[in-house]
Amino acid sequence: MSPRASKLAASRSAKEPPERESVRERLLKAAHELFTEQGYRATTTKQIAARAQVAELSLFRHFGSKADIFEASVLEPLKTYIRQWSQSWVDVAAEATLETMAGQLVEGLYTLIKQDYRIFQELIAARSDPRSDLYSAAVEVSTELRKGLRAVHDASFDVANRYGLPADDKPATIGAVAAMIIGSVVLEDWVYPAQRRIPGRDRMIRELTRMIIDGTTHRGEPGRD
After folding, report:
1. What is the chain's percent helix, strand, coil content, to nearest 5?
2. Residues 179, 91 share a domain
3. How deeply is 159 buried, as exposed, middle or buried, from its count of CB atoms within 10 A (0-12, 13-18, 19+)?
4. 20 to 30 Å CA-CA from 96: which of 11, 16, 169, 212?
5. pLDDT digit string (tens) for 188-224?
6. Helix 98-115 and helix 76-93: axis angle, to 10°?
């Protein structure tokens, strides 16, 4: 084959979509990548189709709207991850050390929020606006997260009894822990000291884990409203 023919063949091959993936799979993969990189608002169906190397019309044949492909490519995986994260914590809580349990709780939730932080920022904003086209997705994700935190809440009673931990107000404690982890990511532009480098992932997980351990093992009697 001549150099010119080889170049043309290589160019054609680069433009052709992978044969092993279906159109739907390519669309889902492209949508997830773009929504994660740019957020929901900044991503268009034209961009998704272009990255998947299909016609935009094909996207609408498989998914009725941008919101539909968002639900399939991002929302369902998010809900699945939350369920797996909470269940894995409940499973390990039966026999793990306090350090392991706290670390797994922090790492799982921090990783989830960090890898999709643009999406979570938009979902949090949409959760308070019923007119938003992301409102129903935001309700679903927040509901799933609260179910996961309820599982952590319920399992924590056995943990407290096993280790003889001081009594605490568990709904308030779980809420404070979740807010601390989520806020450390989605409020990154607000909560860290000015002119100081924002701590990296490992540093934040280590510090959050330490705060949870110290906060739950050294405390007085809880106050209740």
Report:
1. 75, 0, 25
2. yes
3. middle
4. 169
5. 999 999 999 999 999 999 999 999 999 888 876 555 5
6. 170
Count of other CB atoms within 10 angstroms of residue 112: 20
Written as one letter, the residue type at 208 is L
108-129 tens-digit pLDDT: 999 999 999 999 999 999 999 9
The token pair that represents 71 in the structure block: 């639900």
- How is residue 174 written in tokens? 């779980």
Nearest-CA neighbor of 185 among 108, 127, 132?
A: 108
Residues 120, 185 contacting (CB under 8 angstroms): yes
Whether pTM exceeds 0.90? no
Residues 211, 173: contact at Cβ < 8 Å? no
Listing DSSP states for 61-98 in one string gives HHSSSHHHHHIIIIIHHHHHHHHHHHHHHHHHHTT--H
Q: Are residues 42 and 103 in the same domain?
A: no
Quick one: angle between helices 23-38 and 45-52, nearest 10?
Answer: 130
Q: Are residues 35 and 137 in the same domain?
A: no
Type of residue found at 31: A
CB distance 70 to 126 below 8 Å: no
How far, in whole angstroms, is CA 12 from its chain's centroid? Answer: 37
Same domain, 83 and 130: yes
Q: What is the CATH number of the domain that holds 37?
A: 1.10.10.60
